[in-house]
Amino acid sequence: MLSRTWLRLASVSLGFWMLHSLAYGDDAMDARAKKFVEAHVAKMRPLEKESGIAWWIANTSGKDEDFQRKEVAQNKIDAALADPVVFRELKTIKESNKVGDKLLARQIDVLYLSYLEKQVDPLLLREMVAKANAVEKGFNVFRAEVDGKKLSENDVRKVLKESKSSDERRKVWEGSKRVGANVEKDLIALAKLRNQAAGQLGFNNYHQMMLHLNEQEQGHILKLFDELDALTREPFAKAKAEIDERLAANCGVKVADLRPWHYHDPFFQESPTVFGTDLDAIYKEADILKLCREFYTGIGLPIDDVLKRSDLFEKPGKSPHAFCTDIDREGDVRVLANIVPSERWMDTMLHELGHSVYSSKYIPESVPYVLRNASHILTTEGVAMQMGRLAKSGAWQEAMGIASKDAAERKQLSDAGARVLRNQLLIFSRWCQVMLRFEKGLYDNPDQDLNKLWWDLVEKYQLLHRPEGRNVPDFASKIHIVAAPVYYHNYMMGELFASQVHHTIAREVYGGKDPRGVSYVGDKKVGDFMKVKVIAPGQVLSWNDLTKFATGEELTPKAFAKDFRAD
């Protein structure tokens, strides 16, 4: 049980950390830092809101003029952060090491990283924004075309999930990849521009720079992923062999003849549903939005206002993906989605709404504007993944009243969901290896044979066979490489964070209950834990400090390893 006393003590401990001043602070430097932060917020707050709205409109409409407004808004922010006079003052304050108030010092540290990224040639900054904007628009308006028919992303996934024809699957898979050829040249040019910007700031390349700007170090991240590789290699190979047997049987081919289009999503980043139980059947008649409302309200984190502001169903020109955005750090939080009744979209909506509660909607107003964000992209991804996983949980389905009334069928679906989740964690881990190492290679040398690099990594980490004789830019068909560069490793670190937080809740809120049976449904103590231990600190704590604050130890793969065990 999570007592009120415990909650109060947790709040007090964080508050003490936030308000405590260093013993050797300098009052004059504190005043100087405070003045800088206030000037920054006064200037940037309206620009960030304008950009947030422009970004939202562009992604929901797909119109050229809206993308142009988005680009102009981003350029205003970049110009403000690029001001060399302002940066010199910020650098002087930071390098003095005399800011005594820890909360103020943390704001200076966060702002320094934001400004540092923009201390490059303004013309180069604008060129990068224009190039990224053009490529992103190319993704948003692209629809796969097969035999004269345009297919949405949901259509592509439906064929890859259901078709037994290898030829049909191949044509649809290849159709979905043609976006890569459309954007390849611009993407490589963008990578070179990004490297040029990183070089101006003294970094070897953009990959190294982006990790630094996100309070990460390349060697540490690669070491962590090497550990994950060793941890997952054998169980993944075993799980994939079992999956491959089913996929081959479903399509009437030999296992040796399986190719990337035989899997159920275009990148083999999700677990194929091949074990005789269709989890979509659980959600075929379900009201996904109603389930989300009831769940989040039940744990004390209602999201009705988020859904009212959101854009949730397919329409032409709109981004075919899903995301959550905080427009103003004052509670205007929105989700873009393309919902169809399926387990994937149940997972996705729980995921995106997990982002929404870890935002200015629930981060207290007492947290300064500069720090009114998630601690890190990996921690917000972790919370989103923690919630999204519930869609496959038999315990969650039963508690939400959507499980089968037939006991045998209910057990079958629950066991299937557990297997799919277990496979999903392994499969996603291997996919993240590809993305991390490809992006590192891309920025190490954008002129190399990138398609060869891509397929070498896919074969090594995902154990897929590259299509014979295919030499087209499949690497360029992944939007994250453009729109969220050097980001994907944070998804995997988020999975580690999700497991670690979930196991902590099982231990501290549910008295040591088996984490696999913990559903959160209707339990406001879970919401209390999340608000106090994860959400409330905002960006006051760095990602590893927050992990220690929430779970008692630094980020490790231990809890994650327990989550893909088969027993």
Model description:
This protein has two domains: 20-119, no CATH class; 130-563, Neurolysin, domain 3, CATH 1.10.1370.30. The chain is globular, with a radius of gyration of 24 Å. The two termini are 27 Å apart. The model is unreliable at 1-7 and 16-23 (pLDDT under 50). The chain is mainly alpha-helical and 567 residues long. The chain is built from 23 helices and four strands. The chain has a two-stranded antiparallel sheet. The chain has a two-stranded antiparallel sheet with strand order 3-4. The chain has helices spanning 4-19, 27-61, 64-82, 84-96, 102-117, 122-141, 153-162, 166-200, 206-213, 218-251, 280-283, 288-298, 304-309, 343-357, 377-388, 394-399, 407-444, 450-462, 480-483, 488-508, 524-535, 543-551, 558-563, and strands spanning 144-146, 149-151, 323-326, 333-336. Helix 2 (27-61) crosses helix 4, helix 5 packs antiparallel against helix 9 (206-213) and helix 7 packs across helix 8.
Give keywords.
2% strand, mainly alpha, 23 helices, 567 residues, 4 strands, 2 domains, Neurolysin, domain 3
Strand content: under 5%
Provide the number of structural domains.
Answer: 2
For the terminal residues, how far apart are their CA atoms? 27 Å
Total helical segments = 23
Structural class, by secondary structure, is mainly alpha
Q: Nearest-angstrom radius of gyration?
A: 24 Å
> So, CATH architecture of the largest domain?
Orthogonal Bundle
Strand order of the largest sheet: 1-2
Shape call: globular
CATH topology of the largest domain: Neurolysin, domain 3
Question: Percentage of helical residues?
Answer: 55-70%
Mean pLDDT: 92
Low-pLDDT stretches are: 1-7, 16-23
Name of the CATH first level of the largest domain:
Mainly Alpha
- Main sheet overview: 2 strands, antiparallel
- The string of secondary-structure elements, in order, is HHHHHHEEHHHHHHHEEHHHHHHHHHH
Give the tally of β-strands.
4
